[in-house]
Amino acid sequence: MKCTSCWKMIKPVRMLTVTHINGSYLVVPVSLLVLLGTRWEVVTRRCPGYQWHEVYKLLEDDKTCPDVDGHPHQWIIPGGTCKSVGVAGYTLGGGHSSLSRTLGLGIDSLVSMDVVLADGTVAHCSEQSHPDLFWALKGSGGTSFGVVVRFVFRLSKIPRQMAHGKISFNTLWNKPKRSNLLQRYFDFAQTMPPTLNVYSKCNGVVLEFFYSSTEANHEDGMKHIDQFLQLFKWNDFPDMREAEKVGSFWDYEVLVNLDEFDELPASVYWQSALVTEMTSESVDELVEGFGFLYISSLGGAITNYADDATAYRFRSAAFTISAMKAIILKDNVQDAHSNWASFRSKLGSSYLGAYVNYVDPYMMTNFMTEYYGPNAERLSVVKATYDPTNFWRFPQSIPLP
After folding, report:
1. 390 and 400 Cβ atoms separated by less than 8 Å
2. Beta carbons of 313 and 372 less than 8 angstroms apart
3. Neighbouring C-beta atoms of residue 117, cutoff 10 Å
4. Contacts for 49 with CB less than 8 Å, ≥ 6 apart
5. Positive or negative, the Cα torsion across 155, 156, 157, 161?
6. Within its chain, how far is the Cα of 237 from the centroid?
7. Taking a C-beta distance cutoff of 8 angstroms, is the pair 298, 372 a contact?
8. Among residues 90, 96, 133, 100, which one has the least CA distance to residue 114?
9. For a surface tag, which of 73, 162, 175, 349 has the fewest beta carbons within 10 Å of its beta carbon?
């Protein structure tokens, strides 16, 4: 099939998708989203570009998911945490979700995609059709190869009612306290069960931890959550504020409300690191250099695939660390660079690379190594196959060999 209605462009096209920060990138229209459950019925809706809160609401309202061992369940895809994150950008970069430890990355639920290539043809890619392009689109950011206009996801099941909640601490002017809290979290997350998902955010004043259990039996879920909460005994942190309840995944998304990060100043220095562990020294360095933090725990079902099974290569990472710093003057950019370099030097061999969905526009000389590592060479080969004229290009696009 070929799109011929208005395919008369004479200049290379820069095409970027919404990944995390709302408004930073152009929303590429996704004409059709298809959800496939074990019932193999098709649910479709046409729209100019899905955001994850629309998908979650669609699945929340769907009542066709069968019970599991007597417990009501709902269909779900491991999607973005912030409601404004676009389905396309999130998925093509790999897709870290608050459900990833249980269900894997967003790309692990992909069945197929339809991609408009530079010559106007539409390639249907899956494990059986154009498998090399399917591999490349799962974690490369995707926009170096064409415009994905159709996603097909296989649905998973989660309990319709889940144990979840959050705890918060006031850490204003108290960086040692912030370091102590984060170190307890990092140590615990290395051994927690895959049904428990925990992540943290800090806006420079309040440090919060969000947790949810996908155990169908709420008592089992609360046992795991209680083990986590025991890290922060009241006599150690008397200012701890706790919010717990049992509710739907939609309720949890409302509780999380990470969209405050979308309201950061336009001039913000954003960095990411995927790591296997965090030592006390590296935690101190992180807290000292950056106030705005977003840290998600990985592992669990993510590790069911090899690092070269998809373009996303960080299957062995235990955490994603995103750090942000507002830039008031242009000279402050270099200071932020120096802070991040100092932090990364403390990570040593535990540092694996940077997450393409938290794009760093200042990382130009080595972005292929940082984002893709050993998969970079194969990505360039796929690029030459499907976009030999480098039609789809931008400053950090996949280069030709």
Report:
1. yes
2. yes
3. 19
4. 18, 27, 28, 29, 30, 86, 87, 88
5. negative
6. 30
7. no
8. 133
9. 349
Q: For 30-57, write each residue's pLDDT tens digit.
A: 445 555 554 333 333 434 467 888 888 8
pLDDT in tens, 50-65: 788 888 888 888 888 8
For residues 168 and 241, the answer to whether their CB atoms sit within 8 Å is yes
Structure tokens at 140: 């490369």
Read off the pLDDT band of 184 (50, 70, 90): very high
The residue ranges of DSSP E strands in 18-161, in sequence order, are 32-36, 42-45, 73-76, 110-116, 122-126, 147-154, 156-159
How far apart are alpha carbons 80 and 52 in whole angstroms?
Answer: 6
Task: Mark 156-186 as b/e (b = at least 16 C-beta within 10 Å).
Answer: bbbbbbbbbbbbbbebeeeeebbbbbbbbbb
In the chain, the amino acid numbered 4 is T
Q: Where are the alpha helices (DSSP H) in 171-323?
A: 175-189, 218-229, 249-256, 280-289
Q: Which of 244, 210, 248 is nearest to 76 (CA)?
A: 248
Measured between alpha carbons, how far is residue 81 from residues 189, 322, 324 in Å?
19, 14, 18
Residue in 372, 352, 354 with CA at minimum distance from that of residue 363: 354
Q: Cβ(136)–Cβ(148) under 8 Å?
A: no
Amino acid (1-letter code) at residue 124: H
Nearest to 140 by CA among 182, 66, 88: 88
What stretch of H or E contains 167?
strand 162-170
User: Phi/psi zone of residue 86: left (φ > 0), alpha (ψ -120 to 50 degrees), beta?
Assistant: beta
Nearest Cα to Cα of residue 207 among 176, 181, 246, 231:
181
* Three state DSSP letters for 168-213: EEECCCCHHHHHHHHHHHHHHHCCCCCCEEEEEEEECCEEEEEEEE
What is the token pair recorded at 136? 């490349």
